[in-house]
Amino acid sequence: MKLSHCFAALPLLSLAHALHFYFESNEKRCFLEELPSDTIVEGHYRALVWNEPTKAWLSNSDMGITVNVVEMASGHTVVNTKGPSDGRFTFTSHDPGDHNICLSTNITGGWISTEHIKMYLDIQVGSAKHDTTADTTHVSTLAGKLRELNNKVADIQREQKYMREVEATFRDASERTNSRAVVWSLVQMAVLVAAAWGQMRYLKMYFGEKKLR
Fold it and tell me: What is the annotated signal peptide range for this record (predicted)?
């Protein structure tokens, strides 16, 4: 499942993805998120377990959640952490491209059955929001808006850099393909010329011998 199919076409990078899904306690659920380089990603998850006697989804303090994030292009693991059933994770992308975000639990069912899990997942992509409670300088509203604008400009610049990297990759691939096509065409022409020259030589020798007879 891909959380941002048309991510590269969006004008701004600050996006939020909120969803919930169901899986078994012995399963691992993964998602792909396409990111430019040097992008901050914040995630908040909350897992509930189905309680059959009460017929309701309940929290379980004994349940832990493992979060694993891997950059698909390099295979580098940027997050590998274990947390409670309601927790957060944060990471910064190093390389542009797809990032595989996987979540799993540490609980199992009995020998026959497994626990049913309902997971809420909220992912915020973009620069970290300014913490106004920690700001002791009490900046004016205009200064705050200028800071937000600078953050958005930096996000757009990272997006443009990512698009240039993708374009350069496709251009290099096209150039390699064209070079192979040119070389193959020259080889074909050389084979055709050699075959024609051989046939002409053979016919010349054949008719020469025939005249001598």
Answer: 1-18
Cα–Cα–Cα angle for 112, 113, 116, rounded to 5 degrees: 165
Tokens 């992509």 — which residue?
Answer: 125
Query: What would the pLDDT profile of 85-108 be if each residue is shown by its tens digit?
Result: 999 999 998 888 899 999 999 876
Per-residue confidence (pLDDT) for residue 47, from 0 to 100: 93
pLDDT, residue 13, reads 38
Which of 82, 79, 84, 16 is CA-nearest to residue 48?
Answer: 84
**Residue 91 to residue 94: CA distance in whole angstroms:** 9
Q: Which residues lie closer than 8 Å to 98 by C-beta, 6 or more apart?
A: 32, 33, 34, 35, 71, 72, 73
Token duo for residue 127: 């620069």
Q: Which two tokens stand for residue 175?
A: 């150039």
Beta strands in the chain (DSSP E): 15-24, 28-35, 40-51, 56-58, 64-71, 77-84, 86-92, 97-105, 116-125
Of the candidate CATH numbers 3.40.50.1360, 3.40.50.2300, 2.60.120.680, 3.30.420.40, the domain formed by 7-129 belongs to: 2.60.120.680
